[in-house]
């Protein structure tokens, strides 16, 4: 294709994306370099908004904690979601009759807005009325009838597990599709050679799934770093209880619009910029690792 | 889907060998069906998990058919004497009819625009050889990582400057633009997998670039288009941040905004809230049920490299 | 993405960034004083608010205004409360914002004032004779000017279920601390949750702190001392006021940090709990949830050891209305806001919106509302962390909310919580001796 023709195909998307996404986003980044009085912009501030993120309360204490929660959210989601996704996809692989039906059912929670999901699960897990704890008590597991969302030790994990529950349909679909691409001749030959199911999975199937797992991982990373709706629905903008479900986006939200600080736009834009750099850097590093793996596989 | 975020350089190499993925898996299915992994125990597990996945939806639907008093005394009971009063209230008092039409217009419009421009762009990126295409591709892909909801203030000023505040078209354009990176990300991979011989043949028949694209290429990626459209449809349909900030008149509100106002007015009328939620969610469920076949086909084609 | 493409992406971002700076920024011109109003022309004033639930009441109130002001139409537009700050910030900065926005009070309105979005009202609106604590909500601490007209006084107190009290042998609302704890013990013995607290929602905890322990740290007297720098939040009396939570924790629901405020309200309206510490704004919700409850309110007696053995009703002002500096109909808007400071408007707020009006001398038909207003009249104390410690980040209320959660979870002592509050607010708060 000629370059000029190709560019003509690209032009509409480029204009739309440039005007409505790139331009406002870059403007938002530029806000981080100015002093602010409410919504009116003052003089150039250099990097002082960025140093406020490191030196000033509440950022000094809240930002590292929020970031840690983002990372835990990513790692927890990766671990649980991939395990469930792979297991379910493997189990579904040979069930031709029920496969699509079940895949559809597993994807259903994705359709419900996160606000509603948060509301429903808060109701289900409530220590006063919640049926989950009532059920646990009834079947003699009273020691597990915990205040799930009221204890900093469990609250973050509830958010992670509910998030997995909402999104697990994706890895099930993706890994299911990837399993369909594993050449059956290979696995059958290994079985004939006396390899167990587990060995076949570890030695043959799994390595071939790595690219799919990589894609899921990078998307999960971006998603986990931007996490907002679900934590907000569970713990409000302050990450209740005691900041245990706080995330960077929540910190942005409350410092941009809910604080009494008049320079809020400057510091919160600096926070948005830092968040983007973290996501960008992380995704880049992950992609590099994956590329190396692929090259090793190919050779 | 694609192997990594930018399989830009790697993909063309194995594209030819891919062929049409869906057919390959379908052929294999019959043979393995007698031998499901895990047996009956796994079946119970799989269906058990399906129940867990559906439970909140079921709770939502069941409670929307109960009276509010009934719900408060026993939040998880069954509708012993079902009533549709909550729906009548939501539809008339909450003017959900208007919101519904607005949501449908804005969401469908946004998805249509976004998918159209992204399909063209993805084709251009997949077939462009010059260096600028790789460069533009990374630009679009970096859009996947932009936390655009953190830029609400500049977005507002931009819309204010264009006179697009309180405009459904403006809202649709915003959503369309926000969906471009993801759509391009998925579609580019699909175009790369299509053998170039197809286009060469078309050119020999005298077709120009646009005709080739529209008549030959677009029909080939239809499953991918369905996938992209559905995955963009859901978050737009559920979003309430942009309409809250960018719309002013109640007659233009979308469902989630109407729903939040309805929440405010009926904070304790839970059954009416559930009815509102059901009205909001049903179109997505219908869409998803119809589209799953296409989505599975689309993903299978994308993954089976 | 390869390193090569990464580099080109970054170059492009840097390049477009240069273009973006300087363009697409909010304008800060403010002086567009308009005419209009009172000269027979048709004027439409837009009022923004976060009170979606009060739309009908406000429409009725503004109908009364329209009847007296020919040619003026007032359009009331409520938005979702949790997103209102965002909507207001953008709306006031843009070109088609409201003429009369409802704005936040005390420290939370400072960013709006600093944006030069509001018209100063000194000399235009007369608030003499109003409660000082209420007027402060409408003033900027930065320049001392008046920027809004307060709508309502919110008071916090203990709601209680009268019949449930009687059933467990408590005939009167307690008047001493010993009576109060004895009542708690009786209810506990009767298998009723004495005090329904929703500690999962941190924002409720500074309110609960005021309800249970305002006299313990000394209310208004402490306010003067802490603002002038004579004392700080590490004061033993303030520490002891936080420790009241430890003493009373046994009366709260089990696993209280997992209980949401809506759960606490439901416990109360389902008559499974006998008391609910809350604001005057909670009354409507509690009544609606169970109209059959015999609802009463009382001031919690001063805890043992309080500097002064006198119960108080803490309160603050909110719901203030202001004039948008960009309104093309400034005169008409000023006229409306001036009307909002009259007794006529105040009375309608009391009757229709069912809140305690900020205007002095308003009468209340609702006996509970009257009792709350009277109590505040007789023994007021400021909701200190809100009225004076929300002028920066982290705010006093946020610190208290998080701190009390930690206290209830057992991870911090009252002294540590007090020290955290002190250190937190000192990052932006400077005492004025």
TrEMBL record, chain A:
It is found in: Cell membrane. Gene3D superfamilies: MetI-like. SUPFAM superfamilies: MetI-like. This is ABC transporter permease. One of its GO terms (biological process) is transmembrane transport. The keyword Iron does not apply. Keywords: Cell membrane, Membrane, Transmembrane, Transmembrane helix, Transport. Belongs to the binding-protein-dependent transport system permease family.
Automatic annotation (TrEMBL), chain B:
Residues 1-35 are annotated as: Disordered. Keywords: Cell membrane, Membrane, Transmembrane, Transmembrane helix, Transport. It comes from Knoellia aerolata DSM 18566. GO terms for biological process: transmembrane transport. The keyword Cell membrane applies. Belongs to the binding-protein-dependent transport system permease family. This is Sugar ABC transporter permease. Residues 1-22 have a biased composition (Low complexity). The chain crosses the membrane at residues 37-62, 104-126, 138-159, 171-191, 212-234, 270-291. One of its GO terms (cellular component) is plasma membrane. It is found in: Cell membrane. Its main location: membrane. It is a multi-pass membrane protein. Residues 100-291 form the ABC transmembrane type-1 domain. InterPro entries: MetI-like (IPR000515), MetI-like_sf (IPR035906).
Automatic annotation (TrEMBL), chain C:
The keyword Nucleotide-binding does not apply. InterPro entries: Bact_solute-bd_prot1 (IPR050490), SBP (IPR006059). Gene3D superfamilies: Periplasmic binding protein-like II (3.40.190.10). This is Sugar ABC transporter sugar-binding protein. It comes from Knoellia aerolata DSM 18566. The lineage of its organism: Bacteria, Bacillati, Actinomycetota, Actinomycetes, Micrococcales. Keywords: Signal, Transport. GO terms for cellular component: cell envelope. Residues 1-23 form the signal peptide. Its main location: other. Pfam families: SBP_bac_1. It is found in: Cell envelope. The keyword Transport applies.
